[in-house]
Amino acid sequence: MSTLLCATIAIIICRVESLPSPPPWSSLTRMPPSSISISSWSRISAGGMSRDRRRRRGGALFVVGRPLARWTVGSRPLSSSSLEGDGSTYGDELDVDGAISSWSRLVSSMPGCRGRWGGVAPATDGLDRRIMSVAVPSMLNLMVVPLVNAVDTLYVGRLADPLALAAQSAANQCFFSIYFLAAFLPTITAPLVAKAIGKRDWNEARDRVCEGLFLSNVIGGVFTLLLVGFPRAVLSLVLPPEAASGVMTHAVPYLRWRALGMVPALFASTGFAAYRGLLNTVTPLKVSLTTNLLNLALDPLFIFGMGGWSGGGGVASSFLSSGLGPSGAAAATSFAELASALIYLRLLVRRKLIQWSRLLRPPSLKSLLPLIQGGLAMLLRQLTLNVAFVSAARRSQALDPSGVSAAAYGITMQIYSLGVVCHLAIQGTAAALVPSARAAGGDTAAREVADRIFVWGTYLGLLLACVQWFALPAITPLFTPLPEVRNAIRGPAAISSFIHLVNGLVFAGEGTMLGLGSFRDLALITSLGVAVMVSCLASPLGNNLNGVMLSLAAFNLVQGLAVTLHHVRISPLRRRGFFKQRNNVA
């Protein structure tokens, strides 16, 4: 199944590479005034309709949406105006400052629902192609990793031991909680590289990549020593004392093997971020596909061993004969991450984006300032996220001593993560395209890109919710043969399907804020969502697995509402419309 999946992705790579190149930003932003498209609720219908029909269809949505928008942001006086263009008159309601409502602007950016006004249609089609050319390869790239992780879980599940599944879930939660404390470096590197490339400043782009790799090496090395030297202390954050006895036996060696991939994983993430800043997501997809195929090949060997293999005795003979058990999945993943890091280093050297001499030389404080400014806010954000998800994992581990609830939670999150990586691709696309468009075409270009990505994110969330809901009966039995675990998965997995509905807004908004450098605001929004989630977990809602997932849903709902409100009313792109009212507009 995994080989077939990877072959399918390889075919899609060829399709993506054959897509026509999208037009440059200049063609999207430097349009004559007569070709400017007006954003309004009443122009929500498709282009080519008669003016009256457009108004009738758009009016229904306007009646519903307008009171909701006013309730959210407060009512403001409006003035009625009309605009002349291409022999027709178009009426609209404007704010008194002459700017169309930003809520209207956001809705009107829906692909395929924009009126054709002058030369706008070719430009917007080009924008959709540009977004897809970055998002689709990035989505496939990110999807490979959880697919392989799902195969890891599938192999561990075949051991028919719920404690092994619970140990894998706990160890992975601990690893990623520590990993993401350093992963803010790749997160910040992508928009900084994109901004430098947008200005055609290759020296600055090289500086940002080298600084990110140096810090990844230092911070990742410290975290590796922590996880290898003190695994029980780290695991105690997730495993409560009453549930730790049997699970800890499997979790300690698993976490130690997984920790060996910390620095390579950070190197690979920084390399991926650098290529994303270059708006090249096809090359990282090829790297990910290659290294994860290696992971898939090593999984059964490291977990189960070679069975009848006979050697000269010793540790190597014992390992190859019987395998490492659940820890073998971690060892295979770390080995694949090392291969990925080496490939990225070679590629970055060929692109002249790194210099070997600079990887071991500490950068100056002045050059580190952009990373430090954004890094502190992102570190705070990641700390609050860790509090939330470690609390959820700990709650699931404490629900029953048999490990069934913990195993069900781990499998549910594995299924849920398959959709999350698609949203992460939208986040990464926004983080790369928004600063690139802003550097090349100003706020107008960045605003249109952000609006469109919000809408594509919403479409994606709806699609993922439906796909996961209908696929659950087929994919759940693949992860475990234990009937009690299968039964425990049903409710939480169904709830996680509906979380994707709001994730479209969450990740599009987060990516836009990353691209704009609004790290502090993003950290504050995340803190608000985490406070809601932890409060739910501490209430009676957290006494069962369904309640744990509902707490996660509350977190995402708060995040989605907050980032959308930030985009249309607070962010640097908040101007309500694409133009100001002219003196001759009646």
TrEMBL record:
It holds the Pfam family MatE. GO terms for cellular component: membrane. InterPro entries: DinF-like (IPR044644), MATE_fam (IPR002528). Its main location: membrane. Residues 1-18 form the signal peptide. It is a multi-pass membrane protein. Keywords: Membrane, Signal, Transmembrane, Transmembrane helix. It is found in: Membrane. It comes from the Eukaryota. The chain crosses the membrane at residues 175-194, 214-235, 255-275, 287-309, 329-347, 453-471, 491-510, 522-542, 548-568. Belongs to the multi antimicrobial extrusion (MATE) (TC 2.A.66.1) family. This is Protein DETOXIFICATION. It comes from Cyclostephanos tholiformis.
